[in-house]
Amino acid sequence: MYDKLFDDPSLPVGKPTKSYWQNPPHHGLLGIKSKDLPKVRDVVIIGSGITGCSVARHLLTGGYKGFLTVLEAREVCSGATGRNGGRINAVAVLDYDKYSRLFGSKAAAEIIRFELSHLGELLDAAKSLGNEAYKKSEIREVETVAAVFSDDKLQDLKEQLAKFEAALPDLAGCWKVVESEVCEVYGMRNACGALIGKAGAVWGYRLITEIFTSLSNKYQDRLTIETQTPALAISPSGTGNEPYSIKTPRGIIRAKHVIHCTEGHISHLLPNLRGILVPRRGQITVLNPGVNFEDSKGSRSWSFYHKIGFDYLSQNEHTGELFVGGGEVGGFEGALDVHGIASDAAENMTAKSHLAGVMPVVFGNERWGPEQPQKPTLKASWTGVMCNSLDKVPMVGLLPQEALGIRSAGDEEKGAEWLSAGYGGYGMVNAWMCGKAVAEQLIHQKRPSWLPKEYVLTSERMVHLRKRLFDIKGSAEHLRALL
């Protein structure tokens, strides 16, 4: 039953569920491709979500003079970035607790600062596009409310916050734990308390497509975007300057560098990573709020931490519609249902049913109220594919030989394969800066010091992961390691 954790995630499916974020599509990028596929490129980026966009942007604006092609199996930003929950939310206090247990307090603090840098970096990127595109992206800072529903979970929050502030004293006061306020101010009559802080929200599909449009216009002589052009295989080219041949349905491209930015599909072209980077399908819904629900005008996002699993929620600042995701409340068996699944062509029906009804349970019928006239509660729903790593942190950088199998590892100067993947559902507080790190290392032939060391995919890390995988493959422990 655990064999599916090793399955080939294959290419993205041709007919995915319809993401509300992608309606309407960006018509300037829809079906974009060159008349003839380029034969030779300095860099080929596989994937056009936030990671691939970040790599392309930071190469082109960072002084790199080479020629780039972005390959996309479907349409620009049609994968995880265009199917997410709309949040830029670093759960810093909870993440510090998790990472300090795994890597120690110093490493945990570095990871937290890295995650927290994303909101400012993405705001700057959006503002650089001009006022119209900035407004269209709806990127903004929000208040975040992480609610718990038992006294022991509330006590955990208090203890975690105390440890967090002791380790990062400059961030003391940025988060607080509330008890009675969770009902009186935040309207969650069935919660025991909550952790309050700040985060971000964004229409990710619009932001990324606007960035790609800007890059395509400004660097049209050095950048091509090839939609409906999946990378089918990678092999040695036999030439020194462009050591890689990337096979596509439209022909072959030779490239000096190949950068894998395909998240849940990453191990399709990198089979040595199967079981180490594992796809996971997540569920999102759009709900029309009940008539009594307080409209936050897009200034707030929420998380609901249940005994098993959690849900998350953001509100559109213009329409008041609620984007509610999660629903992974089936425990260990439920987790098995969604891990190893790389298709976004179907929905997770248990999660969808849970999400469609969770709001009046959390806020109470009085605060939620009846349905709005002529507006059914459930407006839209879809799925997206995330990627979990076996050691619980992303994998970034040059691919070592142990990850490549029969293909030879390269280097920054002569050419290489690279990756950035394994964000565990937190791509919006990892992917942008991971992509930037790859671009900077390629340009300067030196890894940036601000990238957490735990993220770097070294030979030693791969050897450790493969040994770990050998010890647990085919067992329940394999799934537990991914959770």
Automatic annotation (TrEMBL):
A cellular component term, taken from the record's GO annotations: cytoplasm
Domain FAD dependent oxidoreductase: 42-440
Top-level division of the source organism's lineage: Eukaryota
Stored Gene3D superfamilies: D-Amino Acid Oxidase, subunit A, domain 2 (3.30.9.10), FAD/NAD(P)-binding domain (3.50.50.60)
Protein name: FAD dependent oxidoreductase domain-containing protein
